[in-house]
Amino acid sequence: MPETLRAGETLTVKEQTIHDDGLVTTLGLLHDELDALVQAAYGWTGVLSDQQVLTQLTALNAARHQQERQGTVLYLRPEYQDPKGTAMRDLDMGAGTLAVRVAAVPSFPAKLMDRAVAVQHALQTAPQPLTSAQVTALFKGARAASVEEVLDTLVFLGHAKQFGSETQTLRYGI
Predict the structure, then answer these.
(1) DSSP state string for the chain
(2) Domain range holding 74?
(3) Residues 59 and 91 both lie in one domain
(4) Is 127 found in the same domain as 160?
(5) Structure confidence by residue, pLDDT tens digits, 95-127
(6) pLDDT in tens, 13-40
(7) Is the Cβ–Cβ distance between 120 and 89 less than 8 Å?
């Protein structure tokens, strides 16, 4: 029916009844307005066919995929999409979009020696001392008890320092 109207053809009595009862013209106008707003939001100009829109979206998806593979993720709602706040925010793209560089979260190594090296590196590169919970959060699959054991070992060996006197407030650094 919308094609009939766009072509300027006359509707049958049954089509006209459906059109009037369903507020088709109103819905069509709202749909066209929504299409124009979405197209403007993407920065696309001109009248695009459905195929052109799909082609543009496919190209945009491929570009976003490449950006994410390189570590840049675009968040519109970072408080929802990145609730733990683990992404480092480094670029405001405007209009509420936030580009973030997301470092891949490494897995916690299986071998004790590799764990010690990984935890020591995390402490060395941290801008300030970290709690054991913060260190644990830096690794995929890390258990708090295992991280605390590595931290205690590094402190004992003199490869890390412990700050604070209460267990809950202990911070570790180099």
Answers:
(1) -HHHHHTTPPPPHHHHHHHHHTTHHHHHHHHHHHHHHHHHHHT--S---HHHHHHHHHHHHHHHHHHHHTTEEEES-HHHHSTT--SEEEEEEETTEEEEE-PPPPBPPSSHHHHHHHHHHHHHHSSS-B-HHHHHHTSBT--HHHHHHHHHHHHHTTSSEEE-SSGGG-EEE-
(2) 48-104
(3) yes
(4) yes
(5) 445 555 555 678 899 999 999 999 998 888 888
(6) 888 888 777 777 788 788 888 888 888 8
(7) no
